[in-house]
Design brief:
The complex is a heterodimer. By secondary structure, chain A is α+β, with helices and mostly antiparallel strands. Chain A has helices spanning 29-32, 84-87, 89-99; strands spanning 10-18, 36-44, 53-57, 63-71. Chain A has a 4-stranded antiparallel beta barrel with strand order 1-2-3-4. In chain A, strand 3 (53-57) and strand 4 form a beta hairpin. The model of chain A has no long low-confidence stretch (mean pLDDT 92). Chain B has 2 domains: 1-45, no CATH class; 46-167, Rossmann fold (3-Layer(aba) Sandwich), CATH 3.40.50. Chain B is built from 8 helices and 4 strands, in the order H-H-H-H-E-H-E-H-E-H-E-H. In chain B, the strands form 2 sheets. A two-stranded antiparallel sheet of chain B has the order 1-2. A two-stranded parallel ribbon of chain B has the order 3-4. The radius of gyration of chain B is 20 Å and the shape is globular. Classes of the chains: A alpha+beta, B mainly alpha. Chain A binds chain B through residues 18, 22-25, 34-35, 37, 39, 41, 58-62, 75, 77-80, 93, 96-97, 100, 102-103, and chain B through 5-6, 10, 69-70, 73-74, 77, 119, 142-144, 150, 152, 156, 158, 161-162, 165, 168-169.
Amino acid sequence: MAERIPQGALVDIHRCVLQTGERAPRVPDDTRQVPLEMRVKGFLVSPAAPGEMAEIITPAGRRLRGTLAAVNPAYTHGFGAPLPELSGIGGEVRAMLREQGIIK
Amino acid sequence: MSAGDYETVMGQRAAIMRDSCGIDYAKYTTGVLAFDYERLFADTGYDVVSASSIQRRTGVGQTPLVELHNITALARILAPAGKGARILLKDEAANPSGSFKDRRASLSVHEAKRRGYTGVVAATSGNYGAAVASQAARAGLHCIVVQEAFDSAGIAQPEIAEKTRACEPR
């Protein structure tokens, strides 16, 4: 049995807002092929297990229900490795400025 | 069709705007692309001076204007003879939430507070949400930010994900 997450934990819930057949007429074709999904962070109102329906209260005081998707999810975004194509530019432009006597 | 479907909700859009801000935007549309901002400003009671004063009171604007000597020199080296403007940068990142979007947000939140609303909602790709969240926190209003951040595989562009983080309350 999945671990139950205690009341008050910061969690992400997930819910489908619009199914594929209900999407806005003006969205591109490939967007219309997928549902519009919602993720919201808030505090668990009562204990629930990941994957179950859960209720949260958001910091603005809204009560929302959805599938418990993640518990205190980490930020995983980053900027990747430096681009080799860009790494020589600083030296190139400094050489130009040196040539004009603008920097030493 | 339920009351929450797309057509029903969007059909109420103009009425929601009219009821919440007293503004009928259709009145100011003067062509396919043209919009009469002067008349909008006159009708809402905001002008450049009052807008600027609200921004100053909320810590927005008055950002530094920085001359980029090296970039100007490089432009003049690389541009055709006789060209190469003096390049200055208005450092809008020096606004409280890190972008020029604080300028609009400070006015919207000021108006929401003036009208007695308890909170504000913004739909955003990032910077405007961060600005509204920042100004709402300052004004003591609740704030809901709706951001289109993830694709269907749950992947977000790093700069968008960073704004998602910035919009979150802590």
